[in-house]
Amino acid sequence: MDKNYTTTNPEWAVQGNSAVMSGIEGIKDTTVGNINPYLNFSMKPKNRKVLTEDELVDGVTKGDRTVLSRAITLIESNSPKHFAKAQRVLQRLLPKTGKALRVGITGVPGAGKSTLIEAFGNMLCDEGHKVAVLAVDPTSSITRGSILGDKTRMSTLSRREEAFIRPSPAGGTLGGVARKSRETMLMCEAAGYDVILTETVGVGQSETIVRSMVDFFMLVVLTGAGDDLQGIKKGIMELADAIVINKADGDNLVKAKVTRGEYERMIEFIRPATEGWPTHAYLCSAVEKTGLQELWKVIQLFKEITNASGVFQRRRDSQLLDWMKSMIDDHLHNLFFEDAVITGRMPEVREAVLNGVISPTQAVAELIKIFDVKRASERQVDLFSNT
After folding, report:
1. pLDDT tens-place string over residues 353-372
2. Domain final residue, candidates 264, 282, 311
3. CA trace torsion 235, 238, 240, 242 (10° rounding)
4. For residue 234, which phi and psi values (nearest 5 degrees)?
5. Inter-axis angle of helices 181-190 and 65-76, nearest 10
6. 33/244 Cα distance (integer angstroms)
7. CB–CB of 301/266 below 8 Å?
8. Contact, 297 vs 305, CB < 8 A?
9. C-alpha span between 153 and 63 (Å, rounded)
10. Is 172 in the same domain as 280?
């Protein structure tokens, strides 16, 4: 043993069996994670260059995945200065958007959505498409944290040059879709991705928001899931343009065929999600790569039929108006709760409600009465001004 080290016996150790070394002389900090002060390098991360609007627009237009990631990070930021810059970048990229086919994929946890998306995405890349995957991970209601592991789970697809995977935390939003998902989708379209796959958390009754931002909506289900009536009760089947029975392979193939027949019978009692398009159930195996080509042909046929009837464009128009309405709601919400007069009065009103002095309805009426939209809006800056 090196003579610079000494050994000692802890109280619990067997006598005569010294195994604990004293450590390096000169280091006084014995906390976990202590760094050797003699190491001659800096552990501080280097500051990345802040990209200008021109650099962001140029990089996204050229399909640079690193720049695209940074542009999306800018969009997801809650900082007011980042919001203004992100909106100006998005405005300049708008003419390059709208050409991709947007597909939403949902289903209960464990249905194999991520595995299916990876197999489906790889197939599309092999056929010459550029695929962007917006994977939304469940967020803890306690810590507000997310593992963001979908990119790791799609290991082969994430390594392909033709693919771009963006994991995002659900953040408690309806349907597991982040608030900025629509803008992220537009950024991916501007970068040249012609198929956008949006994977949701899959919470059953809260997928309406997903339906409002995609062209084709796919429900992934399992065999032997229990109460088949639940599918109808939740209303999720009313939103689906296709029902995919996944894991239809091996010993499960026979059960999958039976499940397909059951869903086909249930569909007869439900109004189609898209005018002029009959919803059907399909078998698929992400492991054996079966049913993927059939599924893609179904999606292409859907686009062809709905384009011819005008339903496709009407849905896109309706989605834009819904987006505008939700943005108005968000804007008014922020104006109200960030107003100085409201924030100054809020503690007193909150205390009065908790003590039973006034009802919540009376509290709302009082706050609305003192709220001045004109005053609150004066602090707003022009988004498209560089000043």
Report:
1. 999 999 999 999 999 999 98
2. 311
3. 120
4. -70, -20
5. 160
6. 49
7. no
8. no
9. 24
10. yes
| Domain boundary pick from 261, 295, 311 | 311
Q: Which residues of 178-189 are buried (b: 16+ CB within 10 A; e: fewer)?
A: bbbbbbbbbbbb
Q: How far is CA 290 from CA 72, 105, 131, 223, 326, in A?
A: 34, 18, 20, 16, 39
Whether the Cβ atoms of residue 282 and residue 291 lie closer than 8 Å to each other = yes
Q: Is residue 215 part of a domain?
A: yes
Name the nearest CA neighbour of 284 among 103, 136, 117.
117
CA distance 182 to 240: 19
Contacts made by residues 236-239, CB under 8 angstroms, sequence distance 24+:
236/106, 236/204, 236/205, 236/207, 237/266, 237/267, 237/270, 237/279, 238/270, 238/271, 238/273, 239/207, 239/208, 239/210, 239/211, 239/273
pLDDT of residue 2: 52
* DSSP one-letter string for 259-282: HHHHHHHHHTTS--SBTTB--EEE
Closest CA to 194 of 270, 105, 282, 98: 98
pTM confidence score: 0.78
Angle between the 292-309 and 311-337 helix axes, to the nearest 10 degrees?
Answer: 90
Work out the angle at residue 29's Cα, subtended by the Cα atoms of residues 25 and 32, and round it to the nearest 5 degrees: 115
> pLDDT tens across 129-169, in order?
999 999 876 554 454 444 455 556 788 898 899 999 988 76
Domain count, the chain: 2
Q: Distance between CA atoms of 176 and 78, rounded to whole angstroms? A: 18
User: Residue 33 and residue 44: Cα distance in Å, rounded?
Assistant: 15
